[in-house]
Design brief:
The complex is a heterotrimer of chains A (385), B (309) and C (278). Chain A contains eight helices and 20 strands. Chain A is elongated. Chain A starts with 24 loop residues before the first strand and ends with a strand. Helices cover 74% and strands 1% of the residues of chain B. The chains are: A alpha+beta (385), B mainly alpha (309), C mainly alpha (278). Chains in contact: A-B, A-C, B-C. At the A-C interface, strand 6, helix 2 and helix 4 of A face helix 7, helix 8 and helix 11 of C.
Chain lengths: 385, 309, 278
């Protein structure tokens, strides 16, 4: 049988998997306190060269603070930060080899696009010809050639964002920090820009660190994602691993939609675990193993698209099948989401999602239908917290 | 980011300290130290000498001389001030005149500020300019202009006489009424500007909500607009009342000999009687009277500057 | 406030502005009155202006006043801007309340107190009174006004622009001169103009702190006014009013034009965005 892997897409680039590969950026036991409250709590993280790394989390999780400490605008209360082997302690922002693209763009209103982009280069006292060359290159990269002489107030939101990007890349920093850069753009522009960012990052072979609260954005652009909550790392993994192998309920719930089934461990074997769902008493057989003991309570996390739904009733003795009653339907055009009640309690519902692959369907599923929901042995993940 | 931000102790470089030090030292020397000197002089006695008071402290004379001089200081001047009715009447009269003038300025200024806030957006820069323009022209000139209007042969009386409204010229100049007119006229921009700023920030949808809930417009003004404009009202009143208490030019040019204002008293004491110690004592007491309103004003300013920051 | 003006609003505006401007207008008219008396209109005449040009004392006083105003305004602007920076950016430090107290107090302090205290300081310092003492006195109270004006500009300032400059390699002091100052410049200029006007106009403090040879124009006007209304004074006042009016109107027109241009640019750029050509 062919070896199985997480997710349907294979990635070639994975320096984090080799233990000898030195990290490019390292946070070592970094804590940051404001007053008595820790915004970042004893956090350690390794980021590798040429990664597009995302810090993902809700408001107040500490992701922006972490990035600002790397940029030099905040000083860690304790711990160390290394960039390309150099300890950044005591180095002020204007001497760090990192550059930041600000959420508000922070363009200099009294300078033209050209002068904005050239600003960082002029601080380094580069010769004028070289500055001109770099500026031209950046204008070409971000397709801003015709706007070179304009001032920020003469540009649209999307154009200003590109100027901010060009300005922060002009110095070829060791790492580019992006602080929620796409929040102000409308949906279509945001998607286009995400792909542009990825292309630029690959073309320039740079390390990018992006802070965002938008999980779709993180999943789209990042090589690896760090999910943060209350100043701590919850999980650091590739998008596929985060989605298909979350390590706790918080991550499972934070990214995408998920069914969390409360169950107790009935039996543990080498081939997998048998769970008994609480409330509905149906038996789950999964190929996952768990550290929890027999009789312990766990959650089984299964994504709605992994749940198959069909009209009819469960076969006697079949495993990973349960009867349900269609409760609610959300028809989104490309997909349909079906909520079904599988037991007496209010929480005994399962969501199933499927792509509407056929335009014309005989006898489609509707409200109050009796349905059977089923899934494979490796469709879900056992979570203990 | 909704992170809790308690201001941490700032690590300051040498440049940071220098930034603070320059204006700080200037103000200490030229604002604070003079007050201490005024206090010291208020404890001295008048003398026919240069400078016209005694004792004078000369650091060169040594410690012994310093102590002898120190013992000569006394509160004599303050006692004298309390004994002479002229002085405490002046203080009371100044506060009363200033208070009445402030209320009059408010009654006249509020409709102006309100009218400005309600006017179309296109008019506002022009209206603002019109309010500020008199402020840029000389204060002295504008007070002086009123002399020509208010005196017995002045324009106001000419107008009223020719219209037949009165038979004899009204005596306005050199009375307290002229002082009220003068103060209101001169300080009007100081009240209108902060009040306008406060009214302009008012969210129009609050008034619409009130009307939607059944509240007639005039009532909405009393219950919503007025209370919300209170910070502007208070700031404006402070900016009128406090300097008006110590005002000199207006009572001197427009007031009469029975217009008792402490600013005038201090001036006369200093320039005419050449009594520096008594002038200083007058100033100290005036300062003590004003200290509470000044501190209140500063607190309000401080709160407002922090709020926006 | 969005609702349109009512009749009450328009009337109060009209009355209010008439009240504000009437005395000034009358002054201007009477400066051209051939007769000395206010009661009689003797016909249009510019004789008082001619007499003014030959009044050496007045002209000297005007020159002193201009020099004092220019010098004190310039120094006050520098100190006031520094003070505003401290107020907005320096966070907490020992003696901060005293500092902000010293900035806000002179704004409301009666001038007789300021004048008296400064004079006594100069006497204690054994400093001869004249041009320099008036100048220092004006600088002191003017810097507080400048601080308040610049502070309001700084408070609305987007700090991330300074952070961006630092992030791109610009040390803090250089950032102030290259980035912050150009952006707050309108506020700094407004502060200078305010300081200039306050100095130009000051009577009380100048009277206390000046010395022989440094009589200012307000002092001269005041001493002549005490003797009675003189038409020459009307002429002086009219000239000052005319100068200020021209200045303020010019400034308003320039600002308005800049504002209109800015709005036009922003609208054009926004159009480009929605048309999808970004």
């Amino acid at each position: 049988m062919a070896k199985k892997s997480i997710g349907p897409v294979r990635r070639e680039f994975s320096p984090w998997e080799s233990p000898d590969h030195p990290p490019f950026i390292e946070f070592r036991n970094v804590t940051k306190k404001f007053g008595g409250i820790a915004a970042v709590n004893n956090l350690s993280l390794k980021i590798y060269e040429r990664e597009f790394f995302a810090l993902l989390g809700g408001s107040g999780c500490g992701k922006t603070t972490l990035m600002r400490m790397l940029a030099g605008f905040e000083t860690p209360t304790s711990g160390q930060i290394f960039l390309d082997g150099q300890d950044l302690a005591g180095i002020p922002p204007f001497r760090r080899p990192s550059n930041m693209m600000f959420q508000s763009y922070a363009l200099f209103p009294h300078m033209s696009v050209e002068k904005n982009i050239a600003f960082g280069l002029r601080q380094d006292k580069l010769p004028a010809s070289e500055i001109d060359g770099r500026v031209a290159e950046m204008l070409r990269l971000t397709k801003l050639e015709q706007f070179a002489k304009r001032k920020p107030h003469q540009l649209s939101g999307g154009q200003r964002q590109r100027v901010a990007l060009a300005r922060s890349l002009a110095k070829r920093p060791k790492v580019l920090l992006l602080d929620e850069p796409l929040g102000a753009l409308d949906r279509k522009l945001r998607e286009e820009t995400q792909f542009e960012l990825m292309n630029i990052q690959e073309e320039l072979e740079m390390t990018f660190l992006i802070v965002t609260h938008d999980q779709e954005e993180a999943m789209t652009v990042a090589d690896r994602i760090a999910v943060m909550d209350s100043g701590e790392l919850v999980q650091v993994a590739t998008p596929a691993e985060i989605y298909e192998a979350p390590n706790c309920k918080f991550v499972a719930d934070f990214i995408g939609d998920v069914n969390l089934i409360e169950a107790s461990v009935a039996e543990k074997t080498e081939a997998g675990t048998t769970l008994r769902a609480l409330g509905t008493e149906f038996t789950l057989e999964t190929s996952q193993t768990t550290d929890a003991g027999v009789g312990d309570k766990v959650w089984y996390a299964i994504r709605p698209e992994k749940v198959r739904i069909a009209q009819g009733r469960r076969e006697e003795g079949a495993v990973n099948q349960i009867n349900g009653l269609v409760w609610d339907i959300a028809y989104l055009g490309d997909v349909s989401i079906i909520h079904s009640k599988v037991g007496e309690g209010d929480h005994d519902t399962l969501r199933a999602t499927f792509a509407n692959v056929s335009r014309m369907v005989e006898n489609p599923i509707t409200w109050d239908d009796e349905v059977v929901l089923s899934f494979d042995r490796d469709a879900g993940v056992i979570l203990t917290d | 980011m909704a992170e809790e931000h308690v201001a941490p102790p700032v690590k300051r470089s040498l440049g940071g300290w220098l930034l603070i030090a320059v204006p700080y030292l200037w103000l200490l020397v030229f604002f604070l130290v003079p007050f201490l000197i005024v206090f010291k002089i208020s404890l001295s006695q008048v003398a026919i000498a240069i400078p016209p008071y005694t004792p004078t402290f000369d650091l060169g004379e040594g410690w012994q001389a310093f102590w002898e001089n120190f013992r000569e200081l006394s509160f004599e001047n303050y006692i004298w001030l309390t004994e002479d009715a002229l002085y405490w009447k002046s203080y009371v009269s100044s506060v009363v005149i200033a208070a009445i003038s402030t209320i009059l300025t408010l009654l006249i200024g509020y409709p102006i500020a309100y009218g400005m806030a309600r006017s179309p957006q296109a008019w506002r820069p022009t209206l603002l300019m019109l309010v500020i323009l008199p402020f840029w022209t000389s204060f002295l000139i504008r007070v002086y202009a009123w002399i020509g209007i208010l005196k017995n042969e002045g324009l106001l009386n000419q107008l009223l006489l020719s219209l037949g409204v009165i038979n004899e010229p009204l005596v306005i100049l050199n009375t307290n009424i002229a002082v009220y007119i003068g103060i209101v006229y001169s300080y009007l921009p100081f009240l209108v500007l902060p009040l306008y700023a406060s009214l302009e920030r008012l969210d129009g949808s609050l008034l619409e909500a009130a009307e939607d809930l059944g509240c007639p417009p005039w009532k909405a003004f009393w219950k919503i607009t007025l209370p919300l404009s209170l910070p502007g009202v208070i700031a404006g009143c402070f900016l009128v009342f406090i300097p008006a208490v110590g005002e000199f030019v207006i009572p001197d040019l427009l007031g009469g000999s029975n217009t008792l204002m402490i600013g005038k008293t201090l001036w006369v004491e200093f320039f005419n009687n050449r009594d520096w110690p008594v002038s200083s004592a007058v100033a100290v007491i005036l300062l003590m009277i004003l200290v509470i309103p000044i501190v209140l004003f500063q607190n309000q300013q401080q709160k407002m500057s922090e709020k926006d920051g | 406030m969005t609702r349109g003006p009512t009749w009450f609003n328009i009337t109060s505006l009209a009355l209010g502005f008439s009240f504000l401007y009437l005395p000034i207008v009358l002054l201007v008219i009477y400066s051209f009155n051939a007769s000395r008396l206010v009661t009689v209109w003797g016909g249009f005449s510019t004789q008082w202006y001619v007499l003014l040009l030959h009044n050496q004392q007045l002209l000297d006083a005007a020159w002193v006043t201009l020099r004092v105003a220019f010098t004190s305004a310039s120094i006050a602007t520098v100190f006031g801007t520094l003070a505003a920076l401290v107020l907005v950016r320096s966070g907490r430090f020992v003696g901060r309340s005293l500092f902000s107290g010293m900035i806000f107090a002179p704004l409301v302090m009666p001038e007789v107190i300021l004048g008296l205290s400064l004079l006594l300081l100069f006497v204690a310092m054994d400093q001869a009174r004249g041009f320099w003492t008036v100048m220092m006195a004006h600088t002191t109270f003017a810097m507080c006004y400048v601080a308040v004006v610049v502070q309001s500009r700084l408070v609305g300032f987007d700090k991330s622009i300074e952070e961006a400059a630092e992030d791109l390699g610009c040390p803090p002091v250089k950032t102030f001169f290259l980035i912050t100052l150009p952006i707050i410049l309108p506020g700094v200029i407004a502060g200078w103009m305010l300081a200039f006007t306050l100095s130009l106009d000051d009577l009380v403090i100048a009277s206390f702190t000046t010395g022989p040879g440094a009589t200012t124009l307000p002092m001269k006007i005041y001493s002549q006014v005490r003797l009675g209304v003189t038409p020459e004074i009307n002429a002086v006042c009219t000239i000052l009013v005319a100068l200020v009016t021209v200045g303020v109107i010019a400034a308003s027109i320039v600002t308005k034009r800049q504002q209109v241009q800015k709005e036009r640019d922003e609208r054009a750029a926004f159009g480009a965005d929605t048309a999808g050509t970004s």
